[in-house]
């Protein structure tokens, strides 16, 4: 076999071809590894995952074959350079198409490909490669625009989704769910309904498994309205905002009450006290004066409760470990109510019981429930107070349940519907605002308060509180 002499010019021509082929192999292998292991951006290959994967395999195979042919120097240098430049342009165009077109950013890979073509090919061939790349991208964008595939396909492909949406939908961030119907069939149904009737401003999506109710808004994007922005909002957070506005209005009303009622009420109470000390009062007049004093004190307590509610600022929420917090509160309850023979029990799960709430608000809710139990939840047999404090977080739930349970006679069925109404009370000495304020504060912190009858006798007031997200808790 004759010996092949390699001139300096040949070495300069073949060496850049081999170097750029190594770059080609690196790009193909890197994209393939990132995409297969879920580390690539979500936009890569989202429009046509199959085409994206096949193109990467072919591109990688082209690079491996080029390693051998460049080593053998067969076929000719010009033929290999032209074929590889054509393969680069086609591969990058297909990768960009399967990722959504020129907005995906994949087309940037054409810059080094055309630059290499300018170094390795003749001037005319390099100009042809650049023109072909530009035309292919232009035709691809026109096709995507006319067919409507850029943002919506038969499977309503997801272009971008943030971490908050992943969590609200109950999925792990970065999961390979490229279609809306795979992410949430219920959300996909609402999306189709909106496409048929886009007049409705928003829709509601209930997620019973997570204890959430989401408010969904669809907004078309772009002049061609092919893209759609889907906004997910937690109804509990919206309710908290409404609650803040309502409390602000109540605060203004309470200021008027304090000025208009408190001063005359103080004068009435003071006059009744002076009248009670008069030596000329008979028994009947003394009883009437006592009624004035008692009812005046009750009205004063009502004003105090309203003012206390109106002064509540927006909650200063922070993570709060209910295991530690409830143990501390139970010790204080024993100190306050232990002299009355109160017996306490604690039932705390081993699960993560870190809630997001205002500790001051939670303390007011807790003590309002304890005072209510002390007044109405004692056993009829011996008058003792048996309280159970429990906290539980169901698997996968985003709320923690905190229970205050007594063993009293319970609440009559006809009264349950009115328990949390303001100024409703069955006691002559009560104001009817304790449970109402507890319920309002619970709602202000993104939760809610409900009453659950105990079958064996007694009452259970259950407070639902937002739990710390798993990622935040682990951090």
Automatic annotation (TrEMBL):
Molecular function via GO: phosphorelay sensor kinase activity
Pfam families in the record: 6TM_PilS (PF25323), HATPase_c (PF02518), HisKA (PF00512)
EC number, as in UniProt: 2.7.13.3
Gene3D superfamilies from the UniProt entry: 1.10.287.130, Histidine kinase-like ATPase, C-terminal domain
Histidine kinase domain mapped to chain residues: 256-469
Official protein name in the record: histidine kinase
Entry keyword set: Membrane, Phosphoprotein, Transmembrane, Transmembrane helix
InterPro entries: HATPase_C_sf, HATPase_dom, His_kinase_dom, HisK_dim/P_dom, HisK_dim/P_sf, Sig_transdc_His_kin-like_C
Taxonomy of the source species: Bacteria, Pseudomonadati, Pseudomonadota, Gammaproteobacteria, Chromatiales
Residue intervals passing through the bilayer: 21-38, 50-69, 110-139
Organism: Acidihalobacter yilgarnensis
Source domain of life: Bacteria
Reactions the enzyme catalyzes: ATP + protein L-histidine = ADP + protein N-phospho-L-histidine
């Amino acid at each position: 076999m004759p010996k092949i002499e390699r001139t300096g010019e040949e070495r300069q021509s073949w060496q850049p071809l081999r170097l750029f082929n190594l770059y080609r192999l690196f790009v193909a292998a890197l994209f393939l590894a990132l995409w297969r292991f879920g580390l690539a951006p979500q936009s890569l290959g989202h429009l046509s995952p199959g085409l994206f994967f096949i193109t990467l395999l072919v591109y990688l195979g082209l690079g491996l074959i080029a390693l051998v042919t460049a080593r053998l120097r067969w076929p000719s240098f010009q033929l290999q350079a032209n074929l590889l430049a054509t393969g680069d342009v086609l591969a990058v165009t297909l990768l960009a198409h399967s990722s959504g077109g020129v907005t995906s950013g994949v087309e940037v890979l054409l810059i080094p490909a055309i630059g290499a073509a300018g170094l390795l090919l003749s001037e005319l061939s390099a100009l042809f490669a650049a023109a072909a790349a530009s035309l292919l991208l232009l035709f691809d964008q026109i096709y995507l625009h006319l067919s409507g595939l850029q943002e919506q396909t038969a499977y309503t492909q997801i272009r971008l989704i943030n971490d908050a949406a992943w969590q609200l939908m109950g999925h792990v961030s970065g999961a390979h769910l490229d279609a809306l119907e795979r992410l949430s069939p219920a959300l996909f149904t609402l999306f189709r309904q909106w496409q048929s009737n886009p007049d409705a401003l928003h829709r509601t999506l209930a997620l019973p498994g997570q204890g959430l109710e989401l408010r969904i808004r669809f907004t078309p994007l772009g002049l061609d309205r092919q893209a759609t922005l889907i906004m997910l909002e937690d109804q509990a957070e919206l309710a908290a905002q409404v609650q803040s506005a309502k409390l602000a209005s109540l605060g203004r009303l309470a200021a008027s009450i304090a000025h208009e009622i408190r001063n005359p009420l103080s004068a009435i109470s003071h006059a009744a006290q002076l009248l009670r000390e008069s030596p000329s009062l008979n028994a009947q007049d003394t009883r009437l004066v006592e009624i004035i004093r008692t009812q005046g004190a009750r009205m004063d307590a009502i004003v105090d409760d309203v003012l206390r509610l109106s002064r509540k600022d927006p909650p200063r929420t922070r993570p709060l470990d209910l295991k530690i917090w409830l143990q501390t509160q139970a010790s204080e309850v024993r100190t306050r109510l232990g002299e009355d023979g109160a017996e306490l029990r604690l039932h705390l799960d081993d699960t993560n019981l870190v809630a997001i709430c205002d500790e001051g608000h939670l303390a007011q809710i807790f003590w309002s429930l304890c005072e209510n139990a002390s007044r109405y939840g004692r056993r009829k047999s011996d008058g003792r107070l048996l309280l159970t404090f429990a906290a539980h977080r169901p698997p996968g739930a985003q709320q923690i349940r905190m229970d205050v349970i007594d063993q009293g006679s319970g609440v009559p069925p006809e009264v349950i519907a009115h328990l949390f109404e303001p100024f409703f009370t069955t006691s002559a000495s009560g104001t009817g605002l304790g449970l109402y304020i507890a319920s309002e504060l619970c709602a202000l912190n993104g939760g809610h308060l409900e009453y659950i009858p105990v079958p064996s006798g007694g009452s259970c007031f259950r407070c639902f509180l937002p739990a710390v997200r798993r990622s935040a808790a682990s951090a």
